[in-house]
């Protein structure tokens, strides 16, 4: 039998809670294809990956919730099938025995306008915005950002946010095809139509949430479809104003991890302030029988992503902790 000390240390190793993760399912009932740069995309198989993820999460039994990092359906989905495709994927997520928090991605917005999409995904945003926060236990807060707040996709064509985004792209990207990074150099290559920005009001909201979390001594996990750190992403996939968002985040010490999707190959980095960034490997890019999903064990001093198959496991210890 173990001593009291041994059982105390075994207890310390139990996570405070755990949650499931998946990104870029991009389901469509169409034959396999490829990305612009030739990476295979398995549009029909991706929903099988999601089904296996939900089985795995339910089997785990202790996951408090699931986060979908965005892009549940693909832009190539025939538009007369968009609504049914979104409902079909949401229905698979709903088989998880707990809450599911969805983020929007560019491919969701190619299929349905925000007004229609947000209620289907049960996103609790205000005025068709898709940012919100929740606190699963008093010690932790999750902040979901809307990376397509300022965007040329998803809002009505004459909406001020569409016009702001088109003006911005006109200024930053000289190509007539605004999804082309041709001629753009380094981090400028993010100024593409399939990306977007966090608007001024959302930045102020984020500042207020992080202030409150700091006052409450909460640790914060940020979730955004678009990556926020050049170290974890190709330049072409970054949020337009990732630097402004990170300036707000860096003004506080509460944020421990930023989770993202969009850049399908996945990646991880630790920024200059010791914040972990993890971009998730896409479910869409799993060939037959392969998987990409996982769950995160949450501790006082670290977050541990336990990945399945193509989703790599990542141990993310907080700054100033020994042995990290
Ligand atoms: N280097 C690139 C990448 C993309 N495009 C354009 O974006 C569209 C979407 O790209 P996917 O990665 O989803 O295939 C693509 O159809 C191109 O129009 C580009 O021009 N240059
Ligand atoms: O999922 P997509 O088609 O928007 O692709 C995004 C690219 O991976 C960004 O580099």
Quick take:
The protein is α/β, with parallel strands linked by helices. The protein has 8 helices and 14 strands. The longest helix has 16 residues, at 200-215.
Number of strands: 14
H/E series = HEEEHEHEHHEEHHEHEEEEEE
Distance between the termini: 31 Å
Radius of gyration: 19 Å
CATH architecture: 4-Layer Sandwich
Instruction: Please give the oligomerization state of what you see.
Output: single chain
User: Mind describing the biggest β-sheet?
Assistant: 6 strands, mixed
Sheet/helix structural class: alpha/beta
Mean pLDDT comes to: 95
CATH homologous superfamily descriptor = Metallo-dependent phosphatases
Low-confidence stretches: 1-6
Supply the CATH class: Alpha Beta
* Strands ordered across the widest β-sheet: 5-4-1-12-13-14
Task: Name the overall outline.
Answer: globular
> What's the CATH topology name?
Purple Acid Phosphatase, chain A, domain 2
Helix content: 25-40%
**Number of distinct helices:** 8
**Distinct compounds present:** the ligand Nc1ccn([C@@H]2O[C@H](COP(=O)(O)O)[C@@H](O)[C@H]2O)c(=O)n1, SN-glycerol-3-phosphate
Description of the molecule:
β4, α3 and β5 form a beta-alpha-beta unit. This protein is α/β, with parallel strands linked by helices and 324 residues long. It has a 6-stranded mixed β-sheet with strand order 5-4-1-12-13-14, with helices on one face. It has a 6-stranded mixed β-sheet with strand order 6-7-8-9-11-10, with helices on one face. Strands 2-3 form a two-stranded antiparallel sheet. The chain has one domain (15-317): Purple Acid Phosphatase, chain A, domain 2, CATH 3.60.21. The chain is globular and about 55 Å long. Helices cover 27% and strands 21% of the residues. The model is unreliable at 1-6 (pLDDT under 50).
């Amino acid at each position: 039998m173990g001593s009291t000390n041994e059982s105390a240390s075994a207890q310390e190793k139990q996570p405070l809670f755990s949650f499931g993760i998946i990104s870029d399912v991009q389901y469509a009932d169409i034959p396999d294809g490829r990305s612009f740069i030739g990476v295979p995309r398995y549009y029909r198989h991706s929903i099988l990956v999601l089904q296996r993820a939900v089985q795995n999460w339910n089997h785990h039994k202790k996951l408090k919730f699931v986060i979908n990092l965005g892009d549940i359906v693909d832009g190539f989905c025939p538009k007369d099938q968009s609504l049914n495709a979104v409902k079909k994927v949401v229905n698979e997520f709903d088989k998880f025995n707990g809450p599911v928090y969805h983020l929007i991605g560019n491919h969701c917005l190619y299929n349905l306008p925000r007004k229609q999409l947000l209620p289907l995904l049960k996103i609790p945003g205000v005025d068709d915005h898709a940012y919100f926060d929740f606190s699963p236990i008093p010690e932790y807060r999750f902040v979901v950002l809307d990376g397509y707040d300022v965007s040329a996709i998803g809002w009505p064509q004459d909406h001020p946010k569409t016009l702001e985004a088109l003006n911005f792209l006109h200024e930053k990207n000289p190509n007539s095809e605004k999804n082309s990074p041709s001629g753009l150099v380094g981090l400028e290559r993010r100024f593409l139509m399939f990306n977007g920005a966090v608007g001024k009001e959302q930045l102020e909201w984020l500042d207020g949430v992080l202030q409150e979390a700091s006052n409450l001594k909460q640790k914060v996990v940020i979730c955004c479809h678009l990556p926020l750190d050049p170290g974890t992403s190709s330049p072409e996939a970054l949020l337009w104003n990732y630097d402004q968002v990170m300036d707000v985040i860096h003004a506080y010490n509460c944020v421990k991890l930023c989770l993202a999707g969009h850049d399908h190959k996945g990646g991880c980095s630790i920024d200059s302030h010791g914040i972990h960034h993890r971009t998730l490997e896409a479910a869409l890019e799993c060939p037959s029988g392969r998987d990409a999903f996982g769950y995160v064990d949450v501790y006082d001093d670290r977050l541990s992503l336990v990945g399945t198959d193509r989703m790599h496991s990542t141990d993310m210890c907080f700054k100033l902790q020994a042995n990290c």
